[in-house]
Specification:
Length: about 300
């Protein structure tokens, strides 16, 4: 099969000199084309972004994409871990996180990167917050949390508390990242032990899917007073724009922002890797406006 056989409706007749794209299942509602096609159009690059609906035989899809000249790919659920054996090399950060979201073409195959981690960091910096010497509270210990924990230590956080319903999952991430960085900075906690976190000012990062659907209710820790310690709160969810977690952060006096800027910057960083360009903040703001219009004007 040709990789173009996996193209979703609406993109089947797209013509361009060069193609980039994304593998996922489901993939119909991806916002990535908004990011990358806006960048290409603004830069005058004859390049189009194609969503590929991969339902089986991921290895064959990777090989087809490479053989047919696809410049680079994003990888989304459920393939961020599964893709790794089919790559010729993996960036050390992506290897430590255990997930790849960006494939970059080399002379012998695709190399894997994780731009989610630096994308989130850039989003935090853009809101005037610093990670160096900061103290962080993470809610949740799923796949996204591993990248967030790595990010916190990579950018110099002093202390990170991972709060999760299942203590073992939080402990696994803490053990792995403390070992990776050679210091005991991450402390795992079960959800009921959140009160053991010392009174201080923290960056709160919400890594669970709570708030993604109507009726999800309050986040992992429901005690409103707990969120008074948040200098700011970041939710990886971007739609809806304001989750119950973010509402609590604001109610308790903290600065709150969602995951749309993370989506923006992880995409921009992938585009820079593929095309060997540097995207200006002015252009990033144009893409961000396009994203907001697409997501929130419905």
């Amino acid at each position: 099969m040709s990789i173009m056989d996996y193209t979703i409706e609406g993109y089947k007749n797209v013509q361009a000199k060069q193609y980039i794209g994304i593998f996922g299942n489901p993939i119909k509602h991806t916002l990535s084309p908004v990011i990358h096609d806006t960048l290409s159009k603004s830069l005058g690059v004859d390049e189009r972004y194609i969503p590929f609906h991969i339902t089986d035989n991921l290895k064959a899809a990777v090989e087809s994409a490479y053989d047919e000249g696809i410049l680079g790919l994003n990888i989304t659920v459920p393939y961020k871990q599964e893709i790794m054996p089919y790559l010729v090399d993996i960036d050390p950060a992506a290897k430590a996180i255990g997930a790849v979201n960006t494939l970059v073409r080399t002379e012998v195959g695709y190399m894997g990167y994780n731009t989610d981690m630096p994308g989130l960091a850039k989003a935090i910096f853009s809101e005037g917050m610093e990670l160096k010497d900061s103290k962080v509270v993470m809610l949740g210990a799923g796949g996204a949390a591993r990248a967030v924990a790595y990010m916190c230590l990579y950018y110099g956080a002093k202390r990170v508390y991972i709060v999760n319903r299942t203590f073992e999952k939080a402990k696994n991430i803490a053990d792995d990242m403390n070992t990776e960085f050679g210091k005991e900075c991450i402390i795992p906690l079960s959800a009921q032990d959140y009160k053991s976190i010392p009174e201080d000012r923290y960056i709160f990062i919400q890594c669970t899917s709570v708030g993604l659907h109507n009726g999800d209710g309050l986040p992992l820790v429901e005690d409103k007073e707990f969120y008074r310690m948040a200098e700011c709160g970041v939710d990886l969810i971007y739609n809806p724009a304001k989750t119950p977690f973010l509402q609590l952060i604001e109610e308790m006096g903290g600065k709150a922002f969602n995951g749309l800027k993370m989506l923006l910057y992880q995409g921009i960083m992938a585009y820079e890797l593929w095309n060997q360009v540097e995207i200006s903040e002015e252009l990033a703001n144009i893409v961000y406006s396009e994203l907001k219009n697409t997501v929130y004007s419905k």
